[in-house]
Amino acid sequence: MKKLFLNHKMNLLLKDIEGYVDKIPKDKDLVVFPSNIYIPLFTSENVPVGSQDVSASKRNNMTSEVSATQLKNSGAAYVLVGHSERRAIYQEESSQIRSKLENAVEAGLIPVLCIGEQSVETRYTDLKQQIKEAFGDSLISENIIIAYEPLFAIGSGQALSVEEIDEMIHWIKSYMKEIYHYEPFIIYGGSVNDENIKELSLSIADGFLAGGASLEIEKVKRMIEALK
Ligand code: PGA
After folding, report:
1. Cβ(82) to ligand 1 under 6 A?
2. Ligand 1 centroid, distance to 172 Cα (angstroms)
3. Which of 5, 42, 55, 117 can bridge 49 by disulfide, Cβ–Cβ 3.0-4.6 Å?
4. 0.85 cut: is pTM over it?
5. d(Cα 186, Cα 132) in Å, to the nearest integer?
6. Ligand 1: which atom is nearest the Cα of residue 84?
């Protein structure tokens, strides 16, 4: 099965999560990114889990931050880095994104670096800049997944077409091969749901990142069925 990553963002209460954990199919290719406070509920049921963010700091006196080591220790295997909401709303800078990638890799987490263009017109310059800023001259690790999420597709109800996803993922893979001599694993995100995922799975994307459609367990089950 292609990978399916579920980004809960700041949704769901404890009572909802308990039912969700009970009902979610256990599959190594299905990874949930809940709020950090719920991570142990997933790990205790052997559901692969990730965090939506990680601290860029190596110091422990950082009120409210959660370190990569703490996430790993609580059972997380993955972490989202540089999601567009973090970049836009919290003005996350390239130096922070790079530190987050480094901290995650050092702690043994698999980072999922989110990149995406503002608009069709700026797509290649935006993506080149985000890739260069995150990796600099060296890749840090080959164990980094890229989540390609065009900003205008996120939460819009309008995913990219299969042809466009293919074109963009092909471009990112070629660009990274040219610069870093390495072709990353790339998933697509932006309005992926239970109605379009079967069609989208015909693309060359190695998997998908779903936000809104990840909150209802019935939709999650339909997405998994469509991917099988
Ligand atoms: P969406 O969100 O599926 O609701 O568009 C995706 C994301 O923000 O990762």
Report:
1. no
2. 20
3. 42
4. yes
5. 16
6. 8
